[in-house]
């Protein structure tokens, strides 16, 4: 009997999502554990494996499963390791795939979480029939997964595609999590747009409903809600964010010439408030040679659990082809 199920694991800084996914992209069983449940990596793996086994028992047996796909920060596809992730409780180079495979008896593959999102877009989303595309995740930071000739771009060390860490303003005072100043993700992300709004509040006397909120607690969601109601400063923050992102995407297009660039994550859910100015600026900045060749689109993955779905798609793609860690 053909194996039809995969397990997707999305490791985040706060929670680890676990799901049994079929070939149609439906989640049949879903659980989560705190990523910080243990400071001991081996203990975390044991607890994760226990939840995976619980899911398997609810659905069938291990004979029904192709394997496990894992999306994680600083995931090294070539080695199946997490390499020095700053926002996870365990330090160093962690043999995640090997440990989880030993604990579950299932084959496991691993990649960076943004690469997993790109694979998910290709298997289940809007890039099903594309060979050249990119997925940009606009969350707390900015992640990116790039697909060329139908294959994820990994580079020689497994870490290609750190688009969020291109420096767009070397004189910026915005400190990035990588330790440098002025990276793209310090502007085009949930934290970036909140920082932009706070800067506008400090530098202008314009009326804004956001002045009623505690300054240091203003979030991207607050900015979105205010923009939705026509708040001038909130709309300006979106305009600045769109401008910075547009020139960066125009540069990405000049290098890669993708068929499409998909935007996902919380900030992308702002819809036309982000996309209208983004497309306006992108069309101004993009090299004439590439005009009207690359689409800028919201992710077509309908499920909210894009990280989990992407990790499942990784297992579906890689393990069936025998490409194993």
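^ structure tokens above, recovered residues below v
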């Amino acid at each position: 009997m053909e194996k039809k199920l995969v397990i997707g694991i999305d490791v985040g800084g706060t929670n680890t999502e676990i799901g049994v996914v079929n070939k149609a992209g439906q989640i049949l069983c879903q659980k989560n554990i705190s990523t910080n449940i243990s400071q001991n990596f081996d203990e975390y793996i044991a607890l994760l494996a226990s939840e995976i086994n619980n899911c398997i028992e609810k659905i069938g047996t291990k004979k029904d499963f192709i394997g496990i796909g894992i999306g994680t920060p600083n995931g090294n596809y070539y080695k199946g390791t997490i390499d020095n992730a700053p926002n996870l409780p365990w330090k160093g180079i962690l043999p995640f795939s090997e440990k989880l495979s030993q604990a579950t008896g299932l084959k496991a593959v691993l990649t960076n979480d943004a690469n997993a999102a790109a694979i998910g877009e290709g298997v289940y989303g809007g890039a099903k029939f594309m060979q050249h595309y990119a997925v940009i995740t606009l969350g707390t930071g900015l992640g990116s997964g790039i697909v060329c000739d139908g294959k994820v771009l990994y580079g020689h060390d497994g870490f290609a595609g750190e688009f969020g860490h291109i420096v767009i303003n070397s004189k910026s005072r915005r400190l990035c999590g990588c330790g440098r100043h002025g990276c793209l993700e310090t502007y085009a992300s949930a934290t970036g747009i909140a920082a932009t709004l706070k800067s506008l509040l400090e530098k202008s006397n314009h009326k804004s409903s956001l002045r009623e909120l505690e300054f240091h607690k203003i979030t991207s969601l607050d900015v979105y809600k205010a923009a939705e109601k026509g708040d001038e400063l909130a709309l300006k923050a979106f305009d600045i964010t769109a401008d910075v992102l547009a020139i960066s995407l125009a540069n990405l297009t000049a290098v890669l010439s993708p068929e499409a660039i998909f935007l996902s994550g919380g900030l992308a859910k702002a819809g036309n408030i982000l996309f209208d100015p983004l497309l306006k600026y992108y069309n101004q900045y993009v090299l004439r040679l590439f005009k009207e060749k690359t689409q800028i689109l919201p992710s077509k993955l309908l499920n909210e659990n894009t990280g989990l779905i992407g990790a499942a798609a990784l297992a579906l793609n890689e393990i069936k082809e025998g490409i194993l860690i």
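The two ends are 25 Å apart (CA to CA).
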